[in-house]
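Form 7-S
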Amino acid sequence: MDFIPGLPDDVARQCLIRVSYEKFSTIAAVCRVWKSEVEDPDFFRQRKTAGYTRPVFAMAQARVVPNRSSGGMKCPTLAYRVTLLDLETGNWSELPPVPGFSDGLPMFCQLVGVESELVVVGGWDPDTWEISSSVFIYNFLSATWRRGADMPGARRSFFGCAASGLERVVYVAGGHDGEKNALKSAQVYDVAKDEWAPLPDMARERDECKGVFHRGKFHVIGGYCTEMQGRFERSAEAFDFANWEWNKAEEDFLEDSTCPRTCVDGGDMGMYMCHAGEVVALQDSRWQTVDKLPAEIRHTAYMTTWEGKLLVIGCRSFGEAHVAYMLDLKSHRWRKLVAAEEFCGHVQSGCCLEI
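Output:
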């Protein structure tokens, strides 16, 4: 059967790879030939090579939903779902619920993007508040969720997490176990093989650390040991894949003892983070001011970068609706991304994908 009757297959493929990612599930439902083509990993690679992928920010975002208590009374509660922000069009949308978590994502879960898939790792069960080792993967080509292999070993939360898109793997390090003991162990998850493998332990425990994949290395930034309990340190460690070991910890990686959750990869420009009302960049081993944050953002929930732009989501004060701003790193101009009320909830984690 031809892809498109009357057209050569190579021309028909060029038509399909131009379709927007929101329509993947629709074209896959047309016929078996189209479904097979769209769900083939080569389809995404051809689409990316041809320049038809679009940057999309996926986030675990809160919304208020009614909940029934044991006494039969309805009271509002927060539930997290995966929402999407198309960074080119500014359009917002929502993914279907994760299987088994129809009332919301695991609290404090991590989101990472690997090619055309979104990986949801760990968190707390929203009903029992127990630490979850679950892994779920959303495939944008088939528009379906699947369950991945659970994280092995001691259950951990508030860990550092990052992905290497080239190898389609996800790295996890640090965090704390069910007894609030900070961890220095690390693991790697192969998304395609659905397999976990251990990495060597870091030099020290790192609870509430930030994972960043930067310039071919997995960096674990900040955090604190069990005895410090919330007193963040300034150091960072990077895993050297060539020698299969952690580099010596860089003691003064951060200028201040602060939570590193906004640290992001900036490609050739180093790393970026929000600090003291400013966007700062790590250049020549020093953090330098890039620009001041918009007045509406004093508490930053999340930040990401792509193709010379930077996205910041946050609020003026705790409890207020979250807003999103985009900074052009060349012109240093901020632009507010307007969102409907349903997409102004608290953002607890997120990642940027090209789909």
